[in-house]
Amino acid sequence: MPEIFKRSIIKLLKHADYEPLKLAQLSRALGVSSQDYPQFKEAFEKLRRAGHVVLGAGNVVSLPALSGQITGTFKANPKGFGFVTPLELSSHGDLFIPPPHTAGAMTGDIVAVKVVKKGKPRSIARGDVMLRGKQAGQMRISGKVVEILQRAQNRFVGTLLKELQGWMVQPDGTGFTEPIGVDDVTAKNARHNDKVVVEILTYPTERFLGRGVIVEVLGKAGRYETEINSIIRQYHLPDQFDEDCFEQARSAAAGFNPAQPGKREDITEKVIITIDPPDAKDFDDAISLEKDGSGNRVLGVHIADVSSFVLPDMPLDAEAKVRGNSVYLPGKTIPMLPEILSNGVCSLQPGQKRFVKSVYLTYDSQGNVLSRSFANSIMRSTERLTYQDANKILKGRTRGVKPAVVELLKNMETLSRLIESRRKKDGMIHLDLPETELVMDKAGRVVDAVPADESYPHTIIEMFMVEANEAAASLLDGRNEPFMRRIHPEPDSLTIKNLAKLVGAFGFSMSRSPDRGEIQDLLVAVKRADCSFAVNLAVLRSFEKAQYSPLQIGHYALASGCYCHFTSPIRRYADLLVHRMLESYLQKERRQGPKQQDLTEIGKHISFTEQRAEDAERELQAVLILQMLKSHIGDELDCVVTGLAGFGVFAQSRKFGIEGLISMADLGRDEFKYNQKSQCIVGLYSGSTFRLGQAIKVRIVSVNIGARQLNLCPVKSLKTAAKKKKKSKPAKKSKKDRTHKRPGRRR
Length: 747
What we know:
Helix content is about 30%, strand content about 30%. The protein is of the alpha+beta class and about 750 residues long. Helix 1 (about 1-15) crosses helix 3 (about 35-50). The radius of gyration is 28 Å and the shape is globular. The protein is built from 16 helices and 35 strands.
């Protein structure tokens, strides 16, 4: 509990709107009960003794003040400036580094920064920013990088270009934007417009570009395989398995003998189905549903027993831990385990006997859980369905489908709706953020995009997996041993208050401290409205990201007090760890699993690999879409405004899901300014405004694939009161414009 309180204290103190409070006030702001106050105070004292928090005048609590020089991690911006996140906590959040003072630092570098204070307090808007963190009403503070202490990386992926001044490599992405000079390109048979990996020999300075050497040629830029490989290199994704891993995987697969299941329960005669995407090969979950002697529904969730093939501390286990998870890129999967396991003996293929760990959940007529039980089993899948297949069956298109499968699916839908209703009453929050599926030709080129399938079978499987995960977590929690949890901390009070203010800009009212019920009502109210995406995105950004940790923190969005991941051990290392703990329970043993500190470190690592996989998938998808849009310059897109900044409007394509920028100069024949107070962009003469959630039709102006940039302009130029330009005063804002506050874009 003290660790949880320490985390909550630091999180609240780091918030941009935190105003110093006394300890008792701080405890109330965090919702600490009188019973837990002694542990809360103990946690605070540990933080104070470590120098992480201080007591100031009037005994108010704050983070330490920013010193004259700090050490932190640099993050570059394509516009030339950057931010430094201090390694030691301070009261000023991230420090802004102006373009002349970055000293050639690159994203991820550890740097020493001299703090510069000047001027009077001012409020700061995006595009004119000095600090991220405690911003408004403070002295203007920036920094100057005085030394680069440690480089984050020395290899970059980019496009080789023949320029007048020689051969250059233009790095991909936004982390490092300066070209790198290279010599002797013929050594690797590299050619103009090839995608290459370059190793830095001398880093850039204020006067000179960096120089490097080409260490790998990936192929011609723009080709699918080239772009896939460039993303793999850019994100340092582990692609190939070494021979030790292959040998162990082959041995484990060869040793699989379904004719000798040991003490496993034989459920091969049960009607059990899998439901997965059409292109899936690693089937790790299957469903059965029956009734017991009392007429209660008994849901069976059967999960591939990967722990019987991948043993602790073996080469295959070590590699799976390093990978953390499978990576699903458009058109390519990088598995956590060799395919002889992930797509072979571990995968619950139809008609094949497979080892599984089964969770049985008994429900009453209202969908409440009456009991839970677990078993090691051997099963055989009756049918492999896609989500689309299952949806057709539920809609009555049952020709050629086994009657038992039809009956099972209908019963699954009934139970799922009961579970969904119960969980929503408990406070489960479901965000409506539509996803896009790319349509690709045989060469890997994107030719179109369609909305991802969101039919109800997706919800059926989601509800059943959540129930099984929660059941496993509840069991392990009762054993009083540390295990890998999936935690999603509750948003702090200041963040949730800001959310309430923000949605007022969309015309929706909430209390100053909205609870789960109010957030649920808000999401229902905005459904199908133009502002739906922006509001759902704002709610998402007000939440912390879920992560892996042994800390006893529940899952806020699922309204679950105890949660873990158990249902996907083929593709997630966290689930494999949970399976091993469950095996200990089933064998009635007290095996020594990873210790709390070990689990903490593993949790940090696999949370990182999860985020890395998401970032890689998102970036490759953006690259492929931008490649397609490059041949559609001048075409129109239906978009919604998703962000506002001092330099323009961010708009996201409804069809392709990609975001582009409309610069201030392209908004229309007017002088547009970002109004921080009302959170909108306003034409000074016309009074025209841009607000979050606003629908807008745009035209594609240009595409920069390497920089991942899409530039747009409105199809219909905003009317400007050209005849009114003689007037010295801007048009007055309406009362609505003066009272509605709009959120800035958080990136």
